[in-house]
Amino acid sequence: MEVVTFSRxxxxxxxxxxxxxCAYCGFRRNDYRFMKPNEVKNLLSKSKGAVEALFTFGEKPxxxxxxxxxxxxxxxxSFLEFVRDMNKLSLEMGFxxxxxxxxxxxxxxxxxxxxxxxxxxxxxxxxxxxxxxxxPGKKPEERIKTIKNAGKLKIPFTTGILVGIGESRxxxxxxxxxxxxxxxxxxxxxxxxxxxxxxxxxxPMEKFKPPSLDEMVETVKVAREILPRDVTIQIPPNLVKNLxxxxxxxxxxxGGISEVTPDYINPEHPWPKIxxxxxxxxxxxxxxxxxxxxxxxxxxxxxxxDEVGKVIExxxxxxxxxxx
Length: 324
Prior knowledge:
It is built from eleven helices and nine strands. The chain is an alpha/beta fold. Helix 5 (140-152) packs parallel to helix 6 and helix 6 (169-186) runs parallel beside helix 7 (213-226). It has a single domain, classed as TIM Barrel, CATH 3.20.20.70.
């Protein structure tokens, strides 16, 4: 029986301050605040069995002086120093961090690598789009460079495309081909998310039409044809209600699911219950299996630091999935 995987996580939005102003984003705020260590610790302590600590936040929030001032009051010179300490905290509490930090330099990735089981950055699209006009971090060349640098550092990596934000079908194909080429060079892409755009109220794109079911299924089919077999295709189960056509098209992962935190990026779409998903997946002839934020392949390859390895030893079974 073929396996469909997911990760049980706790979603930690360290800050909503962001240098980018994407036309579809409802996550960004101008409050210049970030979570305090005790807030992070309290959230992790309520995890209800999660193993992945998913750190997601606005890109380069410390470009703003007020944000830097708040950091200095906490004793930090940069936000990534704070992120690193929160990664360390989660490891100490028995979690495996996965950090989505936006565009990072080689040295910034290197700084976070020892304290992360995996990291991620959505390519979104490998072409310039109007929705990213005010978002310097969404320049395709900058995002591609970050994904390549993660490969050079042997960081197990998640990337993906966002469908329906003004791109053409050709753009989607080209973006998937870019990801394929990077992976063929470095071998570090563990999964590619095919995510449908979901309109947000009070954003410039709130009236924008989301992609149809047929468009999404066709994109998953194309992704499966283009991407190497060792790269898993993920679909977000809170944005996709009918799993059957996507599993038939080649998707084999349902991403991270939290039982204690909402999807702060798409709060209007609550997470499905894990047991409900299990029934759906099994009724379609698949087995649902829980994984870690680092895929079994990379657990077996040993692509992790000693610090991360101590938690993996406790959390992983002999096959590299989560120990039951």
